[in-house]
Amino acid sequence: MWRILISLALSLRCVKSSAGCAIHQDDSFQPDHILRVTAQDYTEACTTRYSALVNGSSPGPEIRLKEGQVSWIRVYNDMKHENTTMHWHGLTAFTAPFSDGTPAASQWPIPPGHFFDYEVKPEIGSAGTYFYHSHVGFQAVTAKGPLIVDSNHPPPIHYHAERTIILSDFFNETDKQIIDGLTSSNFTWSGETGAILVNGKSRQATNSTGSCQLASISIEPGLSYRLRFIGATALSFISLAIESHNVSIIEADGHFTKPLETDFLQIGSGQRYSVLLTAKSERELKRAKTRQFYIQLTTLARPETLTNFAVLNYLDGEAPDLRTVPSPPPLPEAKTIQGWLDYELEPLQSDNEFPGLEEVTRRIIIDVHQNVSDHVIWLQNGYDWVQNFRQSPYLVDMYNGRLQTGEMYQRAISRGDGFDNITRTFPAKIGEVLEIVWQNQGTFTNGGVDAHPFHAHGRHVYDIGGGDGQYNATENERRLKLSQPIQRDTSILYRYREKTKPLAPSGWRAWRIRVTDSGVWMYHCHILQHMVMGMQTVFLFGDLEDINAQSGPVDAGYLTYGGSAYGNSTYSPNVRHYFD
Ligand SMILES: *[C@@H]1O[C@H](CO)[C@@H](O)[C@H](O)[C@H]1NC(C)=O
Ligand SMILES: *[C@@H]1O[C@H](CO)[C@@H](O)[C@H](O)[C@H]1NC(C)=O
Ligand SMILES: *[C@@H]1O[C@H](CO)[C@@H](O)[C@H](O)[C@H]1NC(C)=O
Ligand SMILES: *[C@@H]1O[C@H](CO)[C@@H](O)[C@H](O)[C@H]1NC(C)=O
Ligand SMILES: *[C@@H]1O[C@H](CO)[C@@H](O)[C@H](O)[C@H]1NC(C)=O
Ligand SMILES: *[C@@H]1O[C@H](CO)[C@@H](O)[C@H](O)[C@H]1NC(C)=O
Ligand SMILES: *[C@@H]1O[C@H](CO)[C@@H](O)[C@H](O)[C@H]1NC(C)=O
Ligand SMILES: *[C@@H]1O[C@H](CO)[C@@H](O)[C@H](O)[C@H]1NC(C)=O
Ligand SMILES: *[C@@H]1O[C@H](CO)[C@@H](O)[C@H](O)[C@H]1NC(C)=O
Ligand SMILES: *[C@@H]1O[C@H](CO)[C@@H](O)[C@H](O)[C@H]1NC(C)=O
Ligand SMILES: [Cu+2]
């Protein structure tokens, strides 16, 4: 009797709203995947640090989704004092509006002790390599894991097996210490990365004691492998190469590319590449006189260079040597290759959707430089964006009618740079075709320049290249005519030099995108330190009418912090099923 009454009362919550709403009770709903975020002491690279973790480890478990299929991922915030969210890095999440995992932008964060059910549906054709990570504060330094989207069809390029290789950084200070230092008027840098972790493992270059080991990737002779490299670093831009092995790039950020042979990769934070590796034959291994080869990883474009190693082994059950750090390094020292693969890497299948110059309706130039106000900040067209800039998320305000998108658009256009400096957004209308140019500049204080991996949420952008100095559309159009741009979600704004004059142009990166999916999409540098220091922007596509037309009505439970769309141990949430 009680059961019936309770379930009646619960179902009333949903009956009031329109179709598509469901109560996620344990006996009626099972998520496809569960991730639990905790904060605890955790040891990496022989050092213990208080860290945000997914399922108790870093990286967290690999999740596999199917393209074209709806998956529900339940994320529990088991931390006592911190909010969290989960972002599905690289996935277009455009019709489940609250599922992109950006606090203050597309959703209220998950309060401590609560959980949120993310609805994700990878588009057909998006099979590839991704990752998930928290989007709150500095949590993503450890709170992340691989996310692979599989297709129902065999991949267009044949391989026997695959391996996931996820790269991260190690910092010995806690997230809080790092954020406090970066945002303090007494600026304190986080320090450079302590280690490049490969699948969570590393042995520091100088350390001959300690029990930590190098990561090991085991393969068998004669087979072909797809190695999925995931740049899940906080800061590091990494050059990596495998001793005595060349590879062919076959995927960049979830899109197959024409195979391109290379003897090294450059991976920035947020980028992914799949490469095809043909394992050596028994005969080749005999000739090489070893069954163990080093993967050499080096940080680029930072004041200090760090080189770490992992091991590719053919040992079949025999234990590889994961203690020895080769000295001197077996491969030559890596240097930044400016503009690596720009205009060279092409889509596997030619793409008729690429918007030509004649289709571009608006060019938005975003000048990025560092300055000092009461603390050190990174600015885009003169403004920083940090998580506590907003009282409430843009998407929530849009649904509440508190975001005057018409006025925002007018202000942005009349300023001339496409930026609404009141809401700190770049508003755009559905149907526009934007050309977005990130223009690197010397810092206002001393002309220093950094490299930045810029990341786009939502639909992927066409990367139309990069170069030194100031962007020149005429010149770039000439180069574009000879190449086929690829789509990606993260590309590097190179620095070209360590220092220039304050505000002098020193490199650009350009993108094109058709504005098709209404929503709130963050475009930001993927270096966590820079994000904390303001290097983030918000693109707002469409208005309330567009988003209603696309995603249907909203439930009130999404519109308040800890609202009824967020569950806890005693409460099953009211959840809208956007794809039903
Ligand atoms: C994460 O841990 C929970 C239990 O704590 C488990 O149910 C879930 O399957 C794990 N997730 C993955 C992706 O392995
Ligand atoms: C969690 O998020 C809410 C809503 O944005 C905010 O008011 C609160 O300060 C946050 N808590 C922490 C510990 O950051
Ligand atoms: C972290 O490492 C740096 C050197 O990389 C050192 O100066 C600092 O004392 C360490 N901090 C902690 C909290 O261990
Ligand atoms: C500023 O930071 C330094 C460490 O970077 C510390 O030694 C110093 O005491 C701090 N000063 C103030 C006023 O907080
Ligand atoms: C080497 O690692 C050990 C722990 O395994 C640590 O105690 C020691 O400080 C490290 N030394 C250096 C130089 O990093
Ligand atoms: C790898 O490619 C480089 C040139 O890119 C070439 O010099 C080298 O011989 C190749 N190595 C192998 C093992 O194929
Ligand atoms: C840099 O900051 C100073 C004050 O902190 C300000 O006067 C100046 O206009 C800023 N310049 C730029 C280009 O951001
Ligand atoms: C916004 O930009 C306009 C025009 O550039 C300027 O006059 C105004 O002071 C700015 N407002 C804010 C809040 O920054
Ligand atoms: C852009 O490049 C074109 C072609 O090289 C050149 O004629 C033009 O002067 C350049 N524009 C600027 C502003 O430098
Ligand atoms: C769980 O959620 C319900 C409904 O929002 C709320 O009344 C209750 O206080 C929450 N419990 C905890 C422990 O936060
Ligand atoms: Cu940056």
Automatic annotation (TrEMBL):
Keywords of the record: Copper, Metal-binding, Oxidoreductase, Signal
Matches recorded under Pfam families: Cu-oxidase (PF00394), Cu-oxidase_2 (PF07731), Cu-oxidase_3 (PF07732)
Ranges for domain Plastocyanin-like: 37-152, 163-314, 404-540
Cross-referenced InterPro entries: Cu-oxidase-like_N, Cu-oxidase_2nd, Cu-oxidase_C, Cu-oxidase_fam, Cu_oxidase_CS, Cu_oxidase_Cu_BS, Cupredoxin, MCO_CuRO_3
Gene Ontology MF terms in the entry: copper ion binding; oxidoreductase activity
Signal sequence range: 1-20
Gene3D superfamilies: Cupredoxins - blue copper proteins (2.60.40.420)
Spans through the membrane: none
Lineage: superkingdom: Eukaryota
Family: Belongs to the multicopper oxidase family.
NCBIfam families, per the entry: ascorbOXfungal (TIGR03390)
Name under which the protein is recorded: L-ascorbate oxidase
Species this protein is from: Penicillium angulare
